[in-house]
């Protein structure tokens, strides 16, 4: 994906926030896509970061769903929970090319929003309950902060328990 495409995703996000009268804060920092490292740069607890992972969920032989799983930054995606949620045969990580195409950004900059009809957003309740939710803004060098409530209102994710124990 071209750098131009990533700026389109960033611009689309800012336009969405501005047109929705949402209070948000931009934080410029050194380029970083790792949740732990970028949380340190921003000065937020990892639990307040939105970790966004594109998943491939095979419901049956003919049906595959693309899911954007959003979990707290200090947790991992519980693939079994996602599999159960869709009554699926398989749930796993999407390949990089597909994830980049659907998320319209490179790994490490994936937004907790979907601008693609083929990418369904599922967010853990511990994400939408955050008073201040931090995530990279489709760029490695800029992050965004919004309230979990505003995020839920704008992104309209399916809210389900999909976060497993702390990563590590």
Number of strands: 10
Distance between the termini: 31 Å
On the 0 to 100 scale, the average pLDDT is 94
Strand content: 25-35%
Q: Summarize the biggest pleated sheet.
A: 5 strands, mixed
H/E topology pattern: HEHEEEHEHEHEEHEE
> Which outline best applies?
globular
Would you tell me the structural class of the helices and strands? Answer: alpha+beta
Tally of alpha and pi helices:
6
Low-confidence stretches: none
**If strands are numbered along the chain, what order do they take across the biggest sheet?**
5-2-3-6-9
Rg over alpha carbons: 15 Å
The helical percent reads 25-40%
3D structure, described in words:
Helices cover 31% and strands 29% of the residues. The chain has 6 helices and 10 strands; from the N terminus they run αβαβββαβαβαββαββ. It has a 5-stranded mixed sheet with strand order 5-2-3-6-9. A 3-stranded antiparallel sheet has the order 1-8-7. A two-stranded antiparallel ribbon has the order 4-10.
